[in-house]
Amino acid sequence: MTDSAHRVTVEKLIAGGQGLARLDDGRVVFVPAVVPGEVVDIEVTQRENDFARAALVNVVNASPHRRVPPCPHVAEGCGGCDWQHIDADHQGGLKVEIVKEAFARTAKLHPDVALVPPLPSSARRTTVRMVATPAGSLAFHESQSSEIVPVEQCLVAHDLINDLLKRPLLKGAGEITIRVGARTGEVAVECHSGELVDDFPANVRRGKKARITETVHGHNFQVSMASFFQNSPEAAESIADSIAHIFDVFEVSGGVLVDAYGGVGLFARLFADRFSEVVVVEGNAASCRDAMVNLDGCAAQIYESPVEEWRAMPADVVIADPSRSGLGKGGVRTLARTGASLIVLVSCDAVAAARDASLFASLGYALHHVEVLDLFPETHHIEVVSVFTR
Predict the structure, then answer these.
(1) Are residues 336 and 350 both part of a single domain?
(2) What digits encode the pLDDT tens for the residues 170-181?
(3) Which backbone phi and psi does 151 adopt, to 5 degrees?
(4) Using an 8 Å Cβ cutoff, are 326 and 353 in contact?
(5) How many CA atoms, within 13 angstroms, populate the side-chain half-sphere of residue 278?
(6) In terms of pTM, does the model score above 0.85?
(7) What is the pLDDT of residues 232-276, one digit of tens each?
(8) Are residues 253 and 361 in the same domain?
(9) What is the Cα–Cα distance from 189 to 212, expressed in whole angstroms?
């Protein structure tokens, strides 16, 4: 073997989805597209003082949990689903182990971590952002590359999205977001660059101000193209069900709920009947406009403000669903100032969840328990629900 070629054993998968192995000199090396326990040949592509990165060259001894990716676009280089090489029923357990390590390593905490039952196979993504080839064919980026892979069908996308992928939507190269209402049949697109074709489907709403309606647990939600929403109604219901169970355990009833990073008011609306008042804090103007519609008739206040800049008001319960970077010091301090005795943190990054847990602990909150929701099957992405009390 050359200096850059090595045969290693994969110890585990880490946050971000790559495998961790060790070179002969003891240096940690990160390898994509592997499964714990495998012996693989790698080519080192980057060396740092205390770690290296490598490309997978060959699987010498495959894990019994390795499979041929069910989507042919993976073999073509599509970077959308980086865990398709792992058996579907094995992915959730790996995500639990990643969360446990993140909390132990980052926060020095060792909570009980439970895996929530997976979503049904019919729960496919209702929002995708794609690029187009010079011929106008829609595509996804290759993994860690500017190259693109045209696709006419996406394994994890909703049928309404796949129907649109069968035809060019742009006259040439460009970028577009497609959003659909899985339970209403509504479809909208926003063109970020390039130009839409002249014979664009008449039933598809277009533009930055376009919006669709989605139904979650019997409630209709207006969702604009510029607003955040969960990746499917089933995913939204899974998170809501976890939170509802937490509320039942703690016998939550009455008082004030703060829905921080509240988006279109999803949790505020779903739990409005449990509280005397709900408060949404959200920095995105489009989401706030949607929330005003979605919370019509509820005892609700909506604050258009970044959470860390919001003047905290007294509350009994807080739900926080920040972006991938987490709450950070400013967000944690603001939410702690509400005096809430119960805080439910919904995180889409294991390390960010652990970092925020450590910050809450420093302010007197105890981590009660943690749940892992596999809302993004076939990928390393993780949803973590953490419960804090004081």
Answers:
(1) yes
(2) 999 999 999 999
(3) -135, 140
(4) yes
(5) 26
(6) yes
(7) 999 999 999 999 999 999 999 999 999 999 999 999 999 999 999
(8) yes
(9) 10
